[in-house]
Amino acid sequence: MAKSSEKQEGETGPEVTPAAAEAPAAAPVRAQIQIDDSRVAALYANFCRVTGTPEELILDFGLNPQPFVAPVEPIVVSQRIITNYFTAKRMLQALHVAVQRHEAAFGVLETDVQKRIAAHAR
Predict the structure, then answer these.
(1) CA–CA separation, 112 vs 35, rounded Å?
(2) How many other CB atoms are there within 10 angstroms of residue 64's CB atom?
(3) Is 93 left (phi over 0), alpha (psi -120 to 50) or beta?
(4) Contact by Cβ (8 Å): 52, 81
(5) Domain residues of the chain, as ranges?
(6) What pTM was computed for the model?
(7) Which tens digit of pLDDT belongs to each residue from 49-97?
(8) Do the strands 56-63 and 76-84 form a parallel or antiparallel pair, or are they unpaired?
């Protein structure tokens, strides 16, 4: 990778000068990661259960056909993600930023279903 003091379009972060490039970095450098999503399956879930062990976090996702009342039949879990707590914490931070951006653009998301129904009825 060539050292440059010019930023590429869309690039963020501090400029790197030749002297600074040779000095130890004070902040971690974020690498550009390539992703191949050609075989991804996009699935919808309106139910999530979080369980875990001391070493791993388990996220089960499924579709609740009756989201406004307690379901009569068991919810079928169709996806499971098992991850370590370090990855879970990074995921939590990324989700927090995404929700903050959404709320800044579209308003606060009310997670209490009863309050959403009451507000919609007015």
Answers:
(1) 35
(2) 16
(3) alpha
(4) no
(5) 40-121
(6) 0.64
(7) 999 999 999 999 999 988 878 888 899 999 999 999 999 999 999 999 9
(8) antiparallel
